[in-house]
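Researcher: I'm preparing a figure for a lab meeting and need a structural model of a single chain. I don't have an experimental structure, so a prediction will have to do for now. The sequence is pasted below. Please return the structure as tokens so I can convert it later.
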Amino acid sequence: MSRKCELTGKGAQVGHKVSHSNIKTKRRFLPNLVNVTLQSDALARNVRLRISTNALKTVDHRGGLDAFLVKAKPDDLSPKALKLKRELEKKLAAAS
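Model: Understood. Here is the structure written out token by token.
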């Protein structure tokens, strides 16, 4: 399982650990990923995703998973989230 957020695409970054004597050693900065179950109102089901805590905060701010996926760019989404976005768009198009 890759260390990448399924909704925002946020992944590991590379940097330096700097000692007191200013010696630089390579290290990785990993995103804060959590396993969550989010509810899709339009699809009427629960979805399990591995997302960053920052993305979880953004989902709450935008008003839920459905609102987040409608606004999200397809380039950032994982294949699983992209499939959800397509299902959601079909469901919303059929409803209107």
